[in-house]
Description:
- This protein is α/β, with parallel strands linked by helices.
- It has a single domain (2-180), classed as Spore Coat Polysaccharide Biosynthesis Protein SpsA, Chain A (Alpha-Beta Complex).
- Helix content is 26%, strand content 21%.
- The chain has six helices and ten strands.
- The protein has helices spanning 28-37, 70-80, 98-106, 134-142, 148-152, 162-165; strands at residues 2-6, 22-23, 26-27, 42-46, 60-61, 85-90, 113-118, 121-122, 126-130, 157-160.
- The strands form two sheets. Strands 1, 4, 5, 6, 7, 8, 9 and 10 form an eight-stranded mixed sheet that branches.
- Helix 2 (70-80) packs antiparallel against helix 4 (134-142).
Amino acid sequence: xxxxxxxxxxxxxxGTDKALLELEGEPLAGRGLQALRSICPEVLVxxxxxxxxxxxxxxxxxxxxxxxxxxxxxxxxxxxASTALVAVxxxxxxxxxxxxxxxxxxxxxxxxxxVPVTSHGVQPLHAVYATAAGPKLRRALASGSRSVRxxxxxxxxxxxxxxxxxxxxxxxxxxxxxxxxxxxxxx
Length: 187
């Protein structure tokens, strides 16, 4: 499985680049890369322009379509991956769970994606995608869609509910994300 850290956002609500924002002394991008590297021999960074996060020491991919949001990064990552599966992780999920991603991958039986569902809804930015879903997602981009959740409607999705994913992350913290300064957890 290839890991894909989505870190190409503008971070407008945060007011600063979320990838470089520190939590517990470590940049969010470093936390995400650590989780992905623990389970994936190949890790890519979807950095928007394909250049801005070179200091992270991981190969970067430019969004498939500029300013297309996470969907553009996912398409680029799926197209660049050398494996059948890609663990997708948003940089603003500071408590990402490698165990949840491994669990999702173990449930794959040919679907386009395996997505956990929490009380806050589907979590398509902490999910596992088949590289074979790339053409369908590229068509969604070409049609003007920018919503990952809307694009899921075009895919064969295996949704994984709380009773299943809780075995890998009893806390459910993997789904926490930070968009504004007040979202930052205290320690």
